[in-house]
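Sequence in, structure out. Go.
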Amino acid sequence: MRRRKDTRTERAQPAGMTDTALPSRLLLAEARVPRYTSYPTAAQFGPLEEATYRRWLTEQVSPGDSLSLYVHVPFCRDLCWYCACHTRPTRSAARIEAYLGALLAEAGQLAEALPAHGGIAHLHLGGGTPSILGPEGLRALVGLLRERFGLRPGAELAIELAPRLFDAPLAGTLGELGFTRASLGVQDIDLEIQRRIGRPQPVEQVAEAARMLRAAGIAGVNIDLMYGLPGQTEDHVAASARFAAGLGADRLAVFGYAHLPSARPHQRAIDAALLPGAAARMAQAERAERELVAAGYVALGLDHFARPEDPLAIAAAEGRLRRNFQGYTTDAAPVLLGLGASAIGSLPGGFAQNLVDERRYAEAVAAGHLPVAHGLAVTVEDRLRGNLIERLMCDFALDLDLDRPEAAAVIRDALPRLVELEGEGLVRRGPGRLEVTPLGRRFVRQVAACFDVHAGAAAARYSVAV
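Output:
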């Protein structure tokens, strides 16, 4: 594949925010738009019958297809106040054990429903805190998935971890099971910022977790950071970025905090008066990027960074970067299957989401049902729009195929808004090509929304653009 010139580090600098267009850019930054981990987004999902999902599995999975599996564990020991995930706190061993039993049962039922396929290429355990299953629970889960689905050679096994709940036995178990990558939730290293988000976690715990992972043979260490937290400043964000780089993380994500207390009531524990405004959020995001680029990382897409030799950076340089419900990825599997309460999967024909409530989920599985509840069948136009949005989110550019009538219609629909963004200096249009400018890359979600016919329908459910 032809390698593309990598220009992803040419981002806008905060100084660019001092021009006369600043007020309009602040409005763009404060607008609520999807994160575009899918198109259409989950906000457009409706009821989905189990029979429809089973038909999709039968008709749309082929013998050579690799599978991507996402397993959701919706529990944490304590609930962090900033969290926007489907998760809940528990310290009940019985509740966790019952959920694991439901997960194992669902995996078995899903394996029975699938036709012949090519095995798992990517396995991602997320949450919540999936390590709450404990070493024995993880052995049971991964062992069953290996047995019933099979692993392709070189398969990636990834897990999300809370450093303050990580220890040597757990690290040894992950190494024993063949995990290749782990993501450590850090957010910010300042103890006062941690107190304001309900997540006390000394940096020593993070450093020790990274050391134990590498000692167990898990080479890929990711770190998640955040900006826009209560009381956070550019200096806080910069210090956290330098700390993560100093640990030698292979990949980093720097997410903007999404304050949605109407949807996530526990976020009301956060003092909204301390939340940075739009200009401060943009400056924090830019400061984190400058620190990480200076430390040798390549900026990828909206909010990810990787070492130049990392497969994610190589995929981005070659135009192969993808985006799915887990964010930016090298995962090119045509089928993503979700296991667990609230988990979302995607097939060529549409999206399927399991029941969100874990008790209803477990009851459905116990009754012999695949616990799907919501989803959406996608149209040819949905797939076209989704592909345009994904390439914008990954490449900051589009080659516009105006010879196809359906593509020309989509471009025509988007053109009025694109002209407005061009006037803001955020995009450039040329013959058959659209490019997001260096200044506009922070606003790429706004550019992507030009191709989204649903963007305004559920704006209250989305986070701010920057």
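Check: The chain has two domains: 14-37+379-461, 42-377. The longest strand covers residues 151-161.
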